[in-house]
Amino acid sequence: MFSELYQDLETGVTHSHPLHIAAACALGLGLLCPGTARAETITVFAASSLTTALAEIETGFEAASGHDLVIALAGSSALARQIQQGAPADIFLSASPDWMDVLEADGLIELDARFDLLGNRLVLVAHGDAPAVEIGPDFDLMARLGDGRLAMALVESVPAGVYGKAALQSLGLWEAVAPQVAQADNVRAALAFVATGEAPLGIVYATDATADARVTIVGTFPENSHPPIVYPVADLANRDTPAEAEFLAYLRGPQARVAFERQGFTVLAH
């Protein structure tokens, strides 16, 4: 289920998604099946940009395994800080290698259970219908923005905001637009600013843009304008259970691949 346990995680988008699947089966002698006996709860901390894909993956994994997932969604920076403070998570799925590197340096992840799972693209979105633009050094972002605000995730900590700032800096656009940036706690909150019309434009992941029909992708940032967008996943070092290994294997499997690709992610893991 999508947890409400971590509402202090700078999110604004924590979801309640009760999808409990009871894995009970009886044998002829009234004994519980092995799957039921070993059913466990796995707590997953995941970047908010994975909201839609993980809802589908949760349903499939719980049905296939008999385990329960508790998924807490927020900006990767907020989640990493909670893990540093001892939050009882089992799996961390970050939108940036940098925050996973921080936890690795702190000895908080299993080194042999970390791998790069997904890739993504960075896009400019507009509220409602809007004409497409070519994003490059000659793009007049300020003319498109007018007196409005540019919605972005936190530009110094949340991966989508960090990537966005890097892209604007590399294109020579950051200095002019910085005073008009409206920063949100995570990328889904930045998307909401644009979807509701509070900001005319925003910078989000391509996968987020497909989650709300009220926004239009007007341009894609050149891949060489920012560091590669990579989502690593790791088993945290606080405990080690077979259920955690099962979930990591499921994330590499065909059902998860379909869910991720349906949302526009590039699947890196095999």
From TrEMBL:
One of its GO terms (cellular component) is outer membrane-bounded periplasmic space. InterPro entries: ModA, ModA/WtpA. One of its GO terms (biological process) is molybdate ion transport. Gene3D superfamilies: Periplasmic binding protein-like II (3.40.190.10). Keywords: Metal-binding, Molybdenum, Signal. One of its GO terms (molecular function) is metal ion binding. The keyword Membrane does not apply. Molybdate binds at S49, S76, A160, V187, Y205. Belongs to the bacterial solute-binding protein ModA family. The complex is composed of two ATP-binding proteins (ModC), two transmembrane proteins (ModB) and a solute-binding protein (ModA). This is Molybdenum ABC transporter, periplasmic molybdate-binding protein.
